[in-house]
C-alpha cells in the first residue's frame, strides 16, 4: 500500500456553499492496463474493473479481462463459454453483451445475465464472425461476417434475440442513424475499373416484419491520397435525419471536405452546412436549446440551425479552439476550449456569449450525476484534479490529488453507492480504484414539484410569471451566483416585477429547482 497525500482546494461562487470531499482507496491494484469500470447489471453493489492486455501468440490481438472488486480484493470474473473477450463489451440493463472466443463456433457474440449464457452464431459455423458492437439512439447493433461479407444485425434488449437486417453482397461499413423503424447504414466498394471508391448510404425500413432497402445517397472518391469517409453524428429533428458527411484527408496538402446533410421522409438529401476545405479531421453535430449545432474539432466557430435548412455563425471563440461539448441534464451547454498560445483549456458555459467557469491543463468530461458534472484535469508532473461543476449555478469545486500519472477518462468512472468512483494512475505505476466521499453541494435530490417561469426571454421591464404548486421562498440570482432579490411565492401564478433587472442572464431558484432566464 502506497502513501498518498491529498490537497484540497474549493472554489465557491458568492452565496453558494459546498460540502467538503475527500478521496479514499477502494482497490490497490498491482500494475495493469485497467481501462473500464462498471457495476454488474444483475448486482449493482458489485464493482467490476476491466483491463486490456496484449496477446502475441498465436497472433497479435487485444483482449479484455474482467475482475470483480470486494473489500479491497479483486477476483477474476469470466463469462461462461467465452474464453477471451476481444472487443469492448456493452453493459446493458440486465446483462453483458460481449464479443469473444467460444468453444465451438470461434469468435462470436455472447450475452450473459449472471445465470444464463446466450451465444449468437452469426455466421452459422463458417468460422469467426468477428462481431463489432455499436449503440445508436439506444439501439444495439452488430456488424458481423455471415460467412461471406459483413452484415448488419440488431440485438433486441428485451427478447435477447438477434435479427439480421441486411443480406447484401458488400461489407456494411458502419451504422449511421436510426429513425423510427428505419436504420441508415453505409457500404464501401472499391471500383477498380472506374479507379474510385464508391460510398453508398442505405436505408433499411421494417414493415410487417420484412426489411426493404433504399440507396438514398452516394459519394465517389477517386483513388489517390489516403482518405477516410464517414456518415455519422446523427441528430433526428422535425421529421428529418441530420448527419455529418466527412471526407477526411491525412495527406499533407490534401484538405478534408466536411458538411452536414439532411434526409427528409421522402429520402430527399440536402446539404445544409458546408465547411470550407480544412486540414481538420472531424465535424461535430448535436442538438441543444431546440436547435442543431455544429463545429469543427479544434476550430473556433460554433454554428446554429433553427430551421434545419441552413446554419449561421453563433459564436466565434477567437484564439480558443472548441475541442468538446456537453449538454447537461438541466439543459446547459458547456464547451471545452483549448488555447494554443498558453497550452491550457477552459470550460465555458454558453449564455449567448461564452462565460469561462474553469481553467485547467488537460480536461476530460467524465460523467454527470444528480446535478453535478464531473471533469478531470491533469497537471503534468504536479497533480491531477477532479473538477465538479454544479450545474445550477456553475459553482466549481476543484479537488486535487498529488503524484498522479494521469486523470480518469470516460468509462473509467461511475457513481457507485452514491459516491463518485474512478480508476486513477500514480507515477506511471499501478492503476487503482478510488472514490470521492462526501456529497457535492448540488448532489441532492430535487423535490417533486412543478415550477415554471415565463416568458423567457423577456424584455426589460416586462413582468415575469412564476408558477408553482407549493408555497415557499425563492431567489433571483446573477450569473455568478449573487442573490439580488428574495421571492415569497405561493401556490399558483406569481407576478414578479423586473424593472430593476438590467439586460443579461439571471437564475430563478425555488425549492432546489432553477430556471435560467434572459432579459433583453
Count of DSSP strands: 45
- Which CATH architecture of the domain at 451-519 is right? Sandwich
Strand content: over 45%
Instruction: Indicate the overall shape.
Output: globular
Estimated structural class: mainly beta
- Major β-sheet, in short? 5 strands, antiparallel
CATH class of the domain at 451-519: Mainly Beta
The strands making up the biggest β-sheet line up spatially as: 1-34-33-32-31
Low-confidence blocks of residues: 1-20, 442-447
- CATH fold title of the domain at 451-519: Immunoglobulin-like
Percent range for helical residues? Answer: under 10%
Report mean pLDDT, rounded to a whole number.
Answer: 86
The helix count comes to: 0
Rg over alpha carbons:
26 Å
Tell me the CATH superfamily of the domain at 451-519. Immunoglobulins
Separation of termini?
58 Å
Protein architecture, described:
With 520 residues, the chain is mostly beta strands. The protein has a domain at 451-519: Immunoglobulins (Immunoglobulin-like). The protein contains no helices and 45 strands. Strands 1-34-33-32-31 form a 5-stranded antiparallel β-sheet, with no helix packed on it. Strand 20 (240-249) and strand 21 form a beta hairpin. It is globular and about 75 Å long. Mean pLDDT is 86; it is low at 1-20 and 442-447.
Amino acid at each position: 500500500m502506497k502513501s498518498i497525500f491529498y490537497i484540497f482546494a474549493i472554489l465557491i461562487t458568492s452565496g453558494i456553499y459546498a460540502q467538503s470531499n475527500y478521496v479514499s482507496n477502494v482497490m490497490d491494484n498491482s500494475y495493469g492496463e485497467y481501462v473500464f469500470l462498471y457495476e454488474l447489471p444483475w448486482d449493482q453493489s458489485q464493482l467490476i474493473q476491466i483491463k486490456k492486455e496484449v496477446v502475441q501468440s498465436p497472433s497479435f490481438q487485444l483482449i479484455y479481462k474482467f475482475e470483480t472488486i470486494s473489500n479491497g480484493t479483486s477476483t477474476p470474473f469470466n463469462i461462461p463459454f467465452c474464453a477471451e473477450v476481444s472487443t469492448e463489451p456493452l453493459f446493458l440493463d440486465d446483462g453483458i453483451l460481449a464479443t469473444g472466443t467460444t468453444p465451438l463456433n470461434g469468435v462470436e457474440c455472447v450475452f450473459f445475465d449472471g445465470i444464463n449464457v446466450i451465444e449468437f452464431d452469426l455466421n452459422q459455423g463458417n468460422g469467426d464472425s468477428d462481431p463489432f458492437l455499436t449503440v445508436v439512439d439506444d439501439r444495439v447493433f452488430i456488424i458481423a461476417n455471415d460467412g461471406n461479407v459483413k452484415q448488419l444485425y440488431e440485438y433486441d434488449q428485451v427478447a435477447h434475440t438477434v435479427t439480421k437486417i441486411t443480406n447484401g453482397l458488400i461489407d456494411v461499413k458502419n451504422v449511421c442513424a436510426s429513425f423510427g423503424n428505419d436504420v441508415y447504414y453505409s457500404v464501401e466498394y472499391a471500383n477498380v475499373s472506374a479507379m474510385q471508391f464508391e460510398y453508398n448510404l442505405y436505408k433499411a425500413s421494417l414493415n410487417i416484419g420484412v426489411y426493404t432497402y433504399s440507396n438514398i445517397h452516394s459519394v465517389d472518391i477517386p483513388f489517390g491520397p489516403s482518405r477516410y469517409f464517414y456518415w455519422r453524428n446523427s441528430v433526428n429533428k422535425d421529421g428529418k435525419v441530420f448527419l455529418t458527411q466527412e471526407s477526411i484527408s491525412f495527406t499533407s496538402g490534401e484538405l478534408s471536405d466536411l458538411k452536414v446533410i439532411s434526409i427528409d421522409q421522402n429520402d430527399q438529401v440536402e446539404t445544409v452546412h458546408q465547411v470550407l476545405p480544412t486540414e481538420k479531421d472531424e465535424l461535430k453535430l448535436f442538438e441543444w436549446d431546440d436547435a442543431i449545432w455544429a463545429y469543427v474539432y479544434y476550430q473556433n466557430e460554433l454554428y446554429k440551425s433553427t430551421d434545419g435548412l441552413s446554419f449561421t455563425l453563433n459564436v466565434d471563440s477567437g484564439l480558443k479552439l472548441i475541442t468538446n461539448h456537453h449538454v447537461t441534464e438541466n439543459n446547459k451547454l458547456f464547451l471545452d476550449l483549448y488555447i494554443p498560445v498558453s497550452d491550457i483549456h477552459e470550460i465555458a458555459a454558453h449564455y449567448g456569449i461564452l462565460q469561462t467557469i474553469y481553467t485547467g491543463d488537460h480536461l476530460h468530461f467524465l460523467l454527470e450525476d444528480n446535478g453535478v458534472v464531473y471533469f478531470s484535469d491533469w497537471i503534468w508532473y504536479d497533480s491531477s484534479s477532479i473538477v465538479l461543476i454544479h450545474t445550477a449555478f456553475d459553482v466549481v469545486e476543484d479537488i486535487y490529488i498529488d503524484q498522479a500519472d494521469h486523470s480518469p477518462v470516460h468509462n473509467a468512472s461511475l457513481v457507485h453507492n452514491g459516491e463518485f468512483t474512478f480508476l486513477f494512475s500514480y507515477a506511471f505505476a499501478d492503476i487503482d480504484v478510488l472514490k470521492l466521499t462526501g456529497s457535492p453541494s448540488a448532489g441532492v435530490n430535487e423535490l417533486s414539484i412543478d415550477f415554471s417561469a415565463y416568458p423567457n426571454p423577456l424584455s426589460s421591464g416586462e413582468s415575469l410569471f412564476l408558477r408553482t404548486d407549493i408555497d415557499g421562498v425563492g431567489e433571483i440570482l446573477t450569473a455568478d451566483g449573487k442573490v439580488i432579490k428574495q421571492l415569497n411565492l405561493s401556490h399558483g401564478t406569481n407576478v414578479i416585477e423586473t424593472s430593476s433587472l438590467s439586460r443579461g442572464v439571471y437564475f430563478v431558484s425555488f425549492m432546489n429547482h432553477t430556471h435560467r432566464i434572459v432579459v433583453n
